[in-house]
Amino acid sequence: MNIPKTEKKRVVVIGGGFAGISLAKRLKDLDVQLVLIDKQNYHTFQPLLYQVSTSGLEPDSIAYPLRKVLKKLNNFYFRWATVTHVDPKKQIVFTTKGSLSYDYLVMATGTKTNYFGNADIEKYAMPMKNIPQALNIRSLMLQNFEKADDCTDSEERKALLNFCIIGAGPTGVELAGAFAELKNNVFPKDYRHLNMAEMQIHLYEGGGRVLPPMSSKASDKALRFLQKLGVNVHLNTIVQDYDGETLTLNNKETIATKNCIWTAGVTGAAIEGFGNDALVDRVNRYKVNEFNQVEGYTNIFAIGDIALMQTKEYPKGHPQVAQPAIQQGELLAKNLRGLFKGNKMKPFNYYDKGTMATVGRNKAVVDLKKAKFGGFLAWYIWMFVHLMALVGFRNRVIVFFNWMYNYINFDKAARLIVRPFTPKE
Ligand SMILES: Cc1cc2nc3c(=O)[nH]c(=O)nc-3n(C[C@H](O)[C@H](O)[C@H](O)COP(=O)(O)OP(=O)(O)OC[C@H]3O[C@@H](n4cnc5c(N)ncnc54)[C@H](O)[C@@H]3O)c2cc1C
């Protein structure tokens, strides 16, 4: 991979997500050779992907080049490659661009979409885990509106304008709210000859409430916000199948739709090669101890969504959200420094800063340890936290400007079919 061999220890980090860059940034002055490998050459701010899907933001405002994030590091190498497997005995990482030996390896590969074994849904539904997928959703939505404007068959038109989102976690709720805002504020101006009442937004959730990871107060409030915006929320409803034309529910009801978005689950993006004890099969996450060392190895660590650290408070592992990933990256940087000095490592203690989700303008919910609330203040806090968490000053300025523009004009300006999407046959 054209990376020079030196006397220094080589630390290889796989994945430049929240966990990977949180770690790498803090290894700045450590006397090691640091190699970051990612299949994308940019960091993605996943919490705002839904705004790319719904024309609120351009993709480059939520992405940041990994080489630029880490430009201040000495002895740093980035390689744009997909890691295919690891040989822990020989201490080698295999990638699509060649292989590389390591002294220390950090797995920070995050998650991928989980279809729970349903091949039809995997083939026909739209996932939203990365920027190309978010752009596919944007293109499909706009293409279907263009087709609907052309269409004289009312049944066909309804299918083109039915938007079905499966999974009412934060992503599904945020997406449904954003589609509703397009319906209420934006599309009536673009498609003046279409009957906007034909655009229906359906949100399906297998459990009994929206936002299952949040408090019941937040769920109730979010449900009311969604209903106020005109979203049809279907609780205790499991989607069994989707063939590209028809969605089938567990009560055998069917709905014709050309827009089916799957946000119902994720599973670890684990890489092959580790011993049987290292992986928890059910969730595809690496079992780690309190220092994030992968079970059975002392020089291999896992951080972020891919790591499963069982504690008394989190017997199923930490929630797969940004904060545990960032905090584990921070601690591992300190621990690696300590390790090179011969010090003992410190155990990980998660500091839960709270959770939040937004439904739309002036509508968000926030769960903090001491307070749970919703509405304008929650929305304001949601915006502030997300702006501050974005990587790169330029991105913060662009997103802030876009949000202000959208707020004042009731607009979402990125309504562009730049790269048309071809649905699978
Ligand atoms: C749509 C969406 C919305 C979300 N909203 C929120 C939110 O509002 N708040 C919140 O806290 N969390 C949210 N999350 C969760 C949050 O984004 C994750 O918890 C966080 O990204 C985990 O960080 P990570 O570093 O573990 O993984 P990631 O950020 O997913 O990074 C993994 C990296 O590894 C790379 N990679 C994976 N496999 C390979 C391979 N084989 N070879 C090379 N590179 C590889 C990927 O390209 C990626 O860059 C959301 C997630 C999604 C998908």
Silhouette = globular
What hetero molecules are bound to the protein chains? flavin-adenine dinucleotide
Query: If you compute it from the alpha carbons, what radius of gyration comes out, rounded to the nearest whole angstrom?
Result: 22 Å
Unreliable parts: none
| Strand fraction | 15-25%
Plain-language structure description:
The structure is a single chain. This protein is 32% helix and 23% strand. A 5-stranded parallel β-sheet has the order 5-2-1-9-21, with no helix packed on it. Strands 13-12-11-17 form a 4-stranded parallel β-sheet. The protein has 425 residues and is an alpha/beta fold. The mean pLDDT is 95. The protein starts with 9 loop residues before the first strand and ends in a 16-residue tail after the last helix. Helix 1 packs parallel to helix 9. The structure holds flavin-adenine dinucleotide. Flavin-adenine dinucleotide binds next to helix 1, strand 2, helix 7 and helix 9.
